[in-house]
Amino acid sequence: MKIKYICLLLTFTLLCLFTVTVYAGEDDWYVETVESKSTPEGGIHGSVDMNYTMDTRDMNRFTLNTLLFLPYGFSYSNFFHLNSQMAVGGGNFDVNDLYHEQNLWWAPYKPIPLDVATQLQLISGVNNDQVRFGLRWRISDTPWIKVLCDKVHLFASVQYHPLQTDFNSSPGWGQSLEYIYRMQIMPQMFNDRLYIGGFVDHNLDFGGPAAGNNHNIVAETQVGFRVYGNLNAIVEYRYSDYDVKRQGVAFGAEYVVNF
Predict the structure, then answer these.
(1) Among 34, 47, 201, 222, which has the highest number of CB atoms less than 10 A from its own CB?
(2) Which domain holds residue 249?
């Protein structure tokens, strides 16, 4: 896929984001957690963000994230990114791989910060898409932890998928653990402009006697500063056991709209 297709995708995404901006209520990156947002009478709230980064491993990435807080305890996220070919000089404007993840959560009982979780993963390549089922614990909404998390403006959660239905022909079975966090840094001093956030995905693949176990980690930490309006400058540290070069640092820009 050549650069012209990326440009068309970027143009379409920008039009969508600018349209959402017209209806956005606030010029702020922060979105409240499911515990405080997801109510039958609360309507639909959420955020859309798009970012483009250049990685020190000779790679570019375009990312589109959507987060929705829905009525009756439901919430939804959509994560989509395109990577250029890594560590190949002159090829960093050709799309090499795609990753698409969708999550649907349901909090059946508001006082308990546990959500039923369903995750769909679509990955470029053959025989590697999968559907996962499990639970998410919203750590920062837990009563005896919430007070501390509110003081440091932290959202944190861990998601465990004991069940996984995939189209992978390799023997054995898989599970996964996912850790997510986001925290405002000195919000009064920086006027809610500076934040840090990230995730760690721990994929546990238990193979047969011949294949053995194959566990992999993907982790990213992003530091962002809201420069003007809805535009953030971002720096990311990335680690992936699946990449040719496992570690890298990325620099770029992010456009965020909350509604």
Answers:
(1) 34
(2) 3-258
